[in-house]
Design brief:
globular
Length: 155
């Protein structure tokens, strides 16, 4: 299995709310200013087992993806490809090459650059099968972020 390599350490630490505000602004600016043909929908497949949900996501080579903020620690599995990830305010910028498994902290909103076509998995423990309800259970919405919600995650 490949080792995670530090590309650079962030010298300035900002509160998650400040970082998240900047990430959301970046996402809004990109959606507003990039040509429509450069904005692509993420291709995800959803798998269900007893008490389990697995999101399988395909990310094209040479793309930047801004993820959603997770409510709890999140397991990440990179099956194929290589990526550079901003994985939270107290983490270094990481280069990760498949196969790899790592955990992201709660409250993290990743920014990912894909160096090659990438296949990424995120498992979640739930009996729910409705994707919108699963997202509500595991994702902190922008509205919640703006209100400064509290959650049981380990941040």
């Amino acid at each position: 299995m490949s080792e995670q390599k530090t590309v650079t350490d962030f010298k300035k630490r900002l509160p998650i709310s400040t970082i998240n505000t900047k990430i959301n602004k970046l996402a809004d600016d990109m959606k507003e200013n990039l040509p429509k043909e450069q904005i692509k929908d993420i291709q995800s497949r959803h798998h269900f087992g007893d008490g389990q949900y697995l999101r399988e996501t395909f990310l094209e080579k040479d793309t930047i993806t801004i993820g959603k903020m997770h409510r709890y620690k999140d397991i990440n599995v990179l099956l194929k490809g290589s990526v550079t990830i901003f994985n939270g305010e107290d983490c270094p910028l990481l280069f990760i090459e498949a196969p790899a498994i790592w955990t992201s902290k709660a409250g993290v909103q990743k920014i990912v650059y894909t160096h090659e076509d990438t296949l990424w998995l995120n498992p979640h423990p739930t009996d729910e099968t409705d994707i919108k309800l699963i997202e509500k259970q595991f994702i902190i919405s922008r509205e919640e972020q703006e209100k400064g919600i509290e959650w049981d995650g380990d941040i």
